[in-house]
Every structure is written in C-alpha cells, then in structure tokens.
Amino acid sequence: MLEQKWLTALEDRFLRYVQIDTQSCDKSTTSPSTAKQLDLSRLLAQELQAIGALDVTLDEYGYVMAVIPATVPDADVPTVAFLAHVDTAPDFSGTGVKPIVHRDYAGGPIRLPDNPDVVITKEDNPDLPDKIGEDIITASGTTLLGADNKAGVAILVTMADYLLQHPELRHGKIRLCFTPDEEIGAGVNHLSLATLAANVAYTVDGGELGEVVFETFSADMAFVVIEGVAIHPGDAKGRMVNAIRLVTRLIDLLPQGEMSPETTEGYEGYIHPLRTSGDASRMEMQLLLRDFELDGLAAKGELLQRLCRQLQKEEPRSNIQCSIRRQYRNMRYWLEKDRTPVDLAIDAAQLIGVTPRVEPTRGGTDGSRLTEMGLPTPNLFTGAHNMHGPKEWVSVQDMGRSVSLCLALAELWQKEGRGYRGWRG
Hints:
alpha+beta, Alpha-Beta Plaits, 2 domains
C-alpha cells in the first residue's frame, strides 16, 4: 500500500478533477466533442510540467501526452504507455459534482444528502463490506461522481509523480496519454501510434479491485430512420402514417425478456435502444449492438435489419432505413496471440497483494481500438463502482492499489519484458 502522504495527494487530485465538468457529447461534430474537456486537459498539462514530466504536450484534439524518462537507459527495455480519459459519460449529469469523502467507512448503507432516495447498499454492491475502514468517495446524489475515468487520471498523475521522486526505481521509458471523448467511442480517433511511440500500453479505466481485462464486447451502432406520412390530424383517417407508432412497433418486435442490457450478464450480448428523436412525421433511433463474438454481433445486426424489413412490409407507405456503423472489436482476438501484457499485469497484481480478477468487461475502452490498431492495450482496475450514475463510488485505498499496480508493472517490464516490441516491430 502507498504511504499515507501519497494517498492524500491522490485523493486531493481526484477531488479536484471530479469537480471539473468534462462530459462529452455524441451529437457534436468537433474534436474534442465539448470544449469543457479542455479545462481538465490544460490543468493536467500544467500539473505534469510542475512535477517534472518531460515532453508535455496538449494538441488541438485535446490529447495530453508526457514522458517519464527511463532510469534504465537500455534500448532493449520496451516503452510502456498508460492511458486514461478525461471525459465523463453523457448518460447522467456531470455538472456541479459535489464529492463527499466518507472517512473510515463503518459499514451499512451510504445515503447521499442531496437525494435521500439514492442509497448505496451492500445488497447492490457486494464489494462494499470489504471497504470497511477505508475512505469511500461518492457524489451528493444528483450527479455522477466521475470516477470513470477521473480515478484513472488521478492514479496516473500520482504514479508519474511517484516515479519522478523515486529515481531509484528501475524502469524503462513511460509514456502518459490522457484522451478526450472515450465515452462516446471517439477516444483514439485522432491518436497516432507513431506519436504515442510505445511498444505496449494499458488503459487505467477498469472497475473493481483486481480487474485485469483482456476481453471486451465487440460493438456496432445501428441507426434507424423512419419516415411516416404527415397530415393534419383532423383529416388523418386512412392517410396518416405516424412514425412514433412505428418506432414503438419496432421496439415491440425486438426480443422481449432477453437480449437487452437489463436481462443479460456474463458473455451474453444485447440489442439496446439507446436514443430516439423526432416527431410523428419522422423518427430517428440509435441502438447499441453488443456481443463478445463477431458471429453473434453480426447476427444481432441481421436481426435488426430483418425486423426493419418486416415493419416496412407491414406499412409500405412508410420509408424505413437501417444502417450499421462499426465501433470497436473484442481485444481478446489480438491479445490471445501473445498474452505477455496480460500475464505481466496479473503478476504485478499478485506482487502487490491484490487477487487478480481476469474477467470480461461488458463494455469497451480506448484499449479495444488501440489493440486492434496494433498496440496491445489491456485494461486495469481503478476501484470505481456503479459508473455512469448517481450511485458511483470509489475507495481511496483501491485507487492507491491501482497506483501500486502501475508502479509494479513499470518495474516488471524492465525485468521481464526485455526485447518485447509489440506487433508493430
């Protein structure tokens, strides 16, 4: 476990970062999608320079990069990158976050003062009883906390500070990268692997203590546009085609009681109606398609397209279009070819006394796309729970354990990873 002064510094960083509104927006056409993400990015660049990191940059797309120089200047030691994202999810408000530290958690339900109906209980959070005696941070009940992924951001800045103050630790070159727009699937849209210049990477964007993730969903986004026939309601009999009713009909045609986020777990995928907009004349709908296997993902896309064709036949006066856009793929397809980055993360967890949890994550990370691009990038825990909602919480001590994991990994790559060059040679 880190010394208390480092836990205090870590907590201070986290509390400051979560109060900066950095929600991304999937309707935006800019990069980053929201200018307010740059408020945190600029602060990070300043803090990294202040602690002595080298080559600190903030580019036009909002990427913050920095270098922690090697203490073992051996060309045979691979360069390891660590990444975290600055944005928070559009799912729930991130404006006016008021973090609360529940010091020396004594057990029992945690009630959030700004909304008494929001209660964090052990029934919904099996890990909560394990945190008795630790310092739990929540929001106040009306916003998300932002531990996804400001916990990761605080962890990496603290790791960098620690390494720079402990040059006796033996490690190769460390690259840091803070990305925007991960929550809307655009986190690495403008990230060049040549600029990142690493042989292997880790996103610090996981959840529960011990998570080492090398399996993620494969993901597509579906877009359905339904054009009805508009006419004055008073003259509508036999003539109007209401696009809202057709959207409702399409949702009814989707599998009921299965293949949805609320009815699936483990390796089960889903079709998730995410958002609708429009009016009686024209409706647009976005749906998430998720599966761990490419065959299953393709089958879900084909099912949705078949249902759209069925609906078109039922109402030929409408015009129904369904298109599917690729998002990311399961990183396992590449990492299983060479498990070195995963195995060293498991070893590092064991070295610091944390039991590794090698489980699939029912989501994706920047690492999913980076791995597919050619940079092996498993995902590591931050300690965050209940992400994207008002019941989000994290233990300061678990964040400290994540810092220790990253430090152990930096040393392990120097000892065990010599000669590793990733897939890009």
